[in-house]
From TrEMBL:
It comes from Piscinibacter terrae. It is found in: Cytoplasm. Catalyzes the isomerization of sedoheptulose 7-phosphate in D-glycero-D-manno-heptose 7-phosphate. This is Phosphoheptose isomerase. Its main location: cytoplasm. Substrate binds at residues 50-52, 63, 92-93, 118-120, 123, 173. Belongs to the SIS family. GmhA subfamily. Gene3D superfamilies: Glucose-6-phosphate isomerase like protein, domain 1. The reaction produces a racemic mixture of D-glycero-alpha-D-manno-heptose 7-phosphate and D-glycero-beta-D-manno-heptose 7-phosphate. Residues 35-197 form the SIS domain. InterPro entries: GmhA/DiaA (IPR035461), Phosphoheptose_Isoase (IPR004515), SIS_dom (IPR001347), SIS_dom_sf (IPR046348), SIS_GmhA/DiaA_subfam (IPR050099). Its EC number is 5.3.1.28. The lineage of its organism: Bacteria, Pseudomonadati, Pseudomonadota, Betaproteobacteria, Burkholderiales. The keyword Transmembrane does not apply.
Length: 198
């Protein structure tokens, strides 16, 4: 019984990945263009999200600054979820809704990219970060699910919306991680060319 339930989670996750492959390939390719344009122009990626999405933001920044699968110079990325002094000071002195937007205001420049990760599309602090990014003339790449929530209405035509077609947070997060790995892989391909296996 328990084993069946566990197997079903694998099947559901795999089914969603098949469905998402068709729907998300185009917006992910658009996100790659946005990131490559920013990085080659001297820009950087600021990443934010709550809970599991905070981990995703950090996971992405680690692979940009460190490496993904290929050797290359580090790429500029900052997870806005990691500095406990900033998060507690801003959360305590202002409120939790501005913990990311304050950092975007302080660190963001025109041409930078905000990677905004929220499975519901409704996290107030992520939405506030998007507003701050627009004020800084940054491009937003939004990773969402559940139809996109409030994020859908907040994005501009020049932004990229990668919306996973599912209702369950865990399943959406599983696809978000795959999206981030696709981004890392494709950015490396664009910057370094095809791998020489000779
Ligand atoms: O990882 C999980 C659930 O899988 C949780 O920590 C989850 O990320 C948190 O509940 C978040 O606060 C949800 O926020 P969001 O995805 O709706 O923006
Ligand atoms: Zn990874």
């Amino acid at each position: 019984m328990l084993e069946q339930r566990i197997q079903q989670q694998f099947f559901d996750s795999a089914d969603l990945k098949y469905a998402a492959a068709e729907i998300l390939a185009k917006p992910i390719a658009d996100a790659v263009s946005a990131v490559v344009g920013s990085i080659t122009g001297g820009g950087k990626v600021l990443a934010c999200g709550n809970g599991g999405s905070a981990s995703d933001a950090q996971h992405f920044a680690a692979e940009f600054i460190g490496r993904f699968e290929r050797e290359r110079p580090g790429l500029a990325a900052v997870a806005l979820t990691t500095d406990s002094s900033i998060l507690t000071a801003v959360g305590n002195d202002y409120n939790f809704d501005v913990i990311f937007s304050k950092q975007v205001q302080a660190l963001g420049n025109p041409g930078d990219v905000l990677l905004a990760i929220t499975t519901s599309g409704n996290s107030a602090n992520v939405l506030a970060a998007v507003e701050a990014a627009h004020a800084k003339e940054m491009t937003v790449i939004a990773l969402t699910g559940r139809g996109g929530g409030k994020m859908r209405d907040q994005l501009l035509e020049t932004d990229v919306h990668i919306c996973v077609p599912h209702e369950r947070t865990a399943r959406i997060q599983e696809v978000h991680l795959l999206v981030l790995h696709c981004l890392c892989d494709a950015v490396d391909l664009q910057l370094l060319g095809e791998q020489d296996n000779a």
